[in-house]
Design goal:
Layout lengths: L1 E5 L3 H13 L3 E5 L2 H10 L4 E5 L7 H10 L6 E5 L4 H9 L4 E4 L4 H15 L6 E4 L2 E4 L4 E4 L2 E2 L4 H13 L4 E2 H8 L9 H14 L4 E6 L3 E6 H4 L1
Parallel strand pairs: 1-2, 1-3, 3-4, 4-5
Antiparallel strand pairs: 6-7, 7-8, 8-9, 10-12, 11-12
Helix pairs in contact: 2-3, 6-8
Length: about 220
């Protein structure tokens, strides 16, 4: 999952980015609302975390403008303001959730998972397909009841495929989910992780089918034959 963090405080942004990256998210950070608008116009993110107290254009105005521009991704606002009126105003501008600083990382991660599930019309923290289950809260994978060892990027690819199942996921979207601006990764890397996952899943009856010229779809092995 790829996130956009909009925060002007470098130390705060660094801490949040480190925590989110450690949890398996690809995180891109910008320090102003104006820059956020620019990157949102040309790139795709799964969710945005926006500080209200930005210089010049604040986070409330940014949220309003992004919604008016047609962006439907989940938006979580951060602020040091704890007045009810501020929270209501933020939600009215189009935010999906609201957190007051200071906050604990586990709560931020839980709220993000809830927003991402809601945006994908999922109601459970457990993503499942056939005998495969990914528990996104505890980052635990099992297949037919057996523990399945997944590396961080294998997890990211598998999570993205399950969220979009039964629809296929494009190779470009998978690549964006794997990395942010500060990490270089080649398009062939997606194929490498797909190959590794196939080796782990096919013995259990789950296939990752290649959709020529587009990407990949998770299927039961009999259906993929």
């Amino acid at each position: 999952m790829r996130l956009l963090l909009v925060e002007d405080d470098v130390m705060v942004a660094s801490g949040i980015k480190l925590g989110l990256s450690s949890a398996g998210y690809a995180v891109d950070w910008v320090g102003t609302a104006e820059r956020a608008e620019e990157v949102m116009a040309s790139e795709t993110f799964d969710a945005a975390i926006i500080d209200i107290g930005l210089p010049r254009m604040d986070g409330l105005e940014l949220t309003r403008r992004l919604r008016r521009a047609g962006h439907t991704l989940p938006m979580l606002l951060l602020t040091a303001r704890d007045a009810l009126q501020d929270r209501v105003h933020g939600l009215d501008m189009g935010a999906d959730d609201y957190m007051i600083k200071p906050f604990e990382l586990p709560e931020l991660l839980a709220r993000l998972r809830a927003l991402l599930r809601r945006s994908q019309a999922a109601t459970s923290a457990v993503l499942s397909f056939g005998g495969l289950e990914l528990d996104t809260a505890y980052r635990r994978a099992t297949v037919n009841g057996q523990l399945l060892e997944l590396g961080p990027r294998e997890w990211t690819v598998m999570e993205y495929l399950l969220i979009h199942a039964p629809k296929p996921a494009s190779k470009e979207k998978l690549l964006q989910a794997l990395t942010g601006w500060d990490k270089e990764i080649t398009p062939n890397a997606v194929e490498v992780y797909i190959s590794r996952l196939r080796g782990k899943l096919e013995p259990h009856g789950i296939a990752l089918r290649s959709i020529r010229g587009f990407g990949y779809r998770v299927e039961l092995l009999d259906a993929a034959a």
